[in-house]
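User:
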Amino acid sequence: MSNITPFDEMNRVFDRMSRDFGRMDLSDVGRMNWGDVESMRRSGIDIDLAEYDDEIVVVADLPGFDREHIDLTVRDDVLTIAAERVLESDDADESGSYLRRERRAESLRRSVGLPAEVREDDASATYSNGVLTVTLPKTTVEEGSDSHRIDVN
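Assistant: Predicted structure:
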């Protein structure tokens, strides 16, 4: 008779699933038949969203990206953060000098619903040490729903 309880076995299964899930390539989710896994995939951009009396502040972690490759837009009370990192190809790669190469080109995108209407034209953003801070002053209801691009300083 085994000393392993059904709960021990269930815990091992969940541990194995969570380890494997972190390594899964979810780009071919359409072929999977066990639910909407795509909605469970993280965007790779961790954020903090704070609302103050006169403004909304979004802080996002984007380590390793250049300021020029970060794109911010606001439309219909949704802030969209997009960032792209392209690695330069290098002759050492072709010669087989690398023992391990994990850095890769990457494209991230995250949309965040804002809890209040904002003055898009007065929005500002700063990027320092891999941290993006977007400040969006609140407003009253205004006409128009065109998107507005925010420059990153």
